[in-house]
């Protein structure tokens, strides 16, 4: 045990036998292996994680790890309300964001707005696939910076499918969606409020909003350019070479009518206004009175409810289109991670990371970033970021210095780790879900194989940038 062990042990409020912690670490490893082999065992992600959540909750109760005394009953308005112990462990705001955003996008798409935007972007690209990839890549980063990553991926993914279908380039859809999924986590680094780990670590470190943007933006620009370039190379998305191809593409694009999918001009204008207001509200949620208390989940569900009024008589058909597999996957995954936190698995991971602090000003932050990325690729990066922020906040040399490279190592690692596996972040999982929605095959192992080169290059750039500016 090192000097930081008491901090780690106290973070969950109780001591756990090391053998029990390693048992749960093995359980987490088995779950990840099963997800990697999902096609071979012929099971949906939600079923796999659901089975492990049942097992984790049972073993967590068997070993007296779960805080039943804290959530067994709540007194609300004079009434005692019973609550299962696994309910508080689920990040219901993420669930609400996915559900509300999906419904909002689905209903709004009926107005023809997204088709209109997709055709406009397609026309701007001149029918050139590489130019279209650049346009969508930049839009993904911008949306991820001002919205949450999940909402950005849902909107951009929907537009991408429409554009490529219009251009008869559906064979490039996998490359586009994968690159966009990876770019959501790049965009999540741009501002202090772009992702939850940014907020947690930034507040603990005392990093100001403007300072965060100034320090992160050069890396985001560089990583975006490199990621789009790699995507173009690896998926063979190139510019049209011959004059004949360019002329043919321009002629094809010229024949597109952006107004073709608009059935009701009134609903189209309403959908456009509501989308603008939705984006603005999400971006300003933390600054708005009342709404800031209700959170992003409420905003997404509220806007979905407003849009559903247009189809109030047939609203059930939109409910049928909801990706319940994705929602149940997240519910069960949050339950598993919550048990892992009580079993001190996250603390154990943090304990392994702590010797990094003694490696020096160069190797230390670089190793911290890589370790944080590896850990966040298989666990929820929110509790991991919170745990590491608490540990770093207890070190005088780091706590009093918002420019310390260790803070930025955790921020970069927690965000970029989401590009290593499809469960590393909600947005990458959503991108895989959209890929499957279009009938394209991409397994857990397949994602890791394809995404790993991007993740390694992004981390290498992050390490280099961190050492350069620190």
Short description:
70% of the residues lie in helices and 2% in strands. It has 470 residues and is an all-alpha fold. α9 (173-187) runs antiparallel to α11 (209-234).
Question: Any overview of this molecule?
Answer:
- With 470 residues, the protein is mostly helical.
- The chain has a domain at 92-193 and 209-320.
- 70% of the residues lie in helices and 2% in strands.
- It is built from 23 helices and two strands.
- The chain has helices at residues 5-11, 18-36, 45-62, 68-71, 92-109, 113-125, 129-146, 149-166, 173-187, 196-205, 209-234, 243-254, 265-283, 291-308, 316-320, 324-342, 345-353, 363-376, 381-393, 396-399, 405-416, 426-437, 444-469, and strands spanning 73-76, 79-82.
- The protein has a two-stranded antiparallel ribbon with strand order 1-2.
- A hairpin with a 2-residue loop joins strand 1 and strand 2 (79-82).
- Helix 5 runs parallel beside helix 8 and helix 9 runs antiparallel to helix 22 (426-437).
- The longest helix has 26 residues, at 209-234.
- The radius of gyration is 23 Å and the shape is globular.
- The two termini are 30 Å apart.
- Mean pLDDT is 82; it is low at 1-12.
